[in-house]
Amino acid sequence: MKPDEPRRPDPDALLLEAAKAGRGRLKVFLGMAPGVGKTYEMLAQAARRKAEGGDVLVGVVETHGRRETEALTANLEILARKPIEYKGRTLPEFDIDEALKRRPALLLIDEYAHSNAPCSRHPKRWQDVEELLSAGVNVWTTLNVQHIESLVDLVWKIIGVRQRETVPDSAVARA
Q1: Burial 33-52, CB ≥16 within 10 A → b, else e
Q2: Which of 87, 88, 164, 175 allows an S-S link to 26, with CB 3.0 to 4.6 Å?
Q3: Cβ count near 13 (within 10 Å)
Q4: Within 10 A of 104 (CB to CB), how many other CB atoms are there?
Q5: Distance CA 79, CA 103 (A)
């Protein structure tokens, strides 16, 4: 480190401070595109954690019909989704209240950038995650790089698709 450079905080000291504050820890399974295996890897690691005696709860996971991915949920406890009525349809959404009541050691929440149904507590799933972390719940989630707010314009220039569901860089930085 050069003498004029600002001193970086010690990562271990930051983790200790977070633990003292009672804040949960966030782990993001980051991928370059849909279908690269983020959800599969998150579930595989969660299954190992459960096999070691860990308290793991699936808050919401989207298998997109992939049998191999769905098979990884077989031995995991899955939180029931909350039915939300919207425009004559019933939308199965993540139930943040039940997750907070259950308070697992580890909660899996797929698709970090997801937009919640309009009458949900928070407009975005990443905001649900923030509330859970503040309550001391550890969360694992998945995210594609094109959903990171600061990369939206760059991705649009490269592939010509503008993402509407985004996560602020500050939320990702907490991981």
Answers
A1: eeeeebbbbbbebbbebbee
A2: 175
A3: 9
A4: 19
A5: 11
Please list, in sequence order, all residues whose beta carbon lies within 8 angstroms of the beta carbon of residue 150, skipping any fewer than 6 positions away: 169
Q: 5 in helix, strand or coil?
A: coil
The helix or strand, by DSSP H or E, that contains position 27, with its residue range, turns out to be strand 26-31
The answer for residues whose C-beta is within 8 angstroms of residue 5's C-beta and 6 or more apart is none
Read off the DSSP letter of residue 165.
S
Residue pointed to by tokens 């990702």: 172
Q: What is the pTM of this model?
A: 0.84
pLDDT tens digits for range 11-70: 666 656 655 568 999 999 999 878 899 999 999 999 999 999 999 999 999 998 899 999
Between CA 40 and CA 152 the distance in angstroms is 25
98 burial level (CB within 10 Å; 0-12, 13-18, 19+): middle
pLDDT category, 3, cuts 50, 70, 90? low
DSSP state of 150: G
* End-to-end alpha carbon distance in the chain: 24
Q: Which residue has the tokens 């997801």?
A: 114
Over residues 114-152, the pLDDT tens digits come to: 999 988 999 999 999 999 999 999 999 999 988 888 888
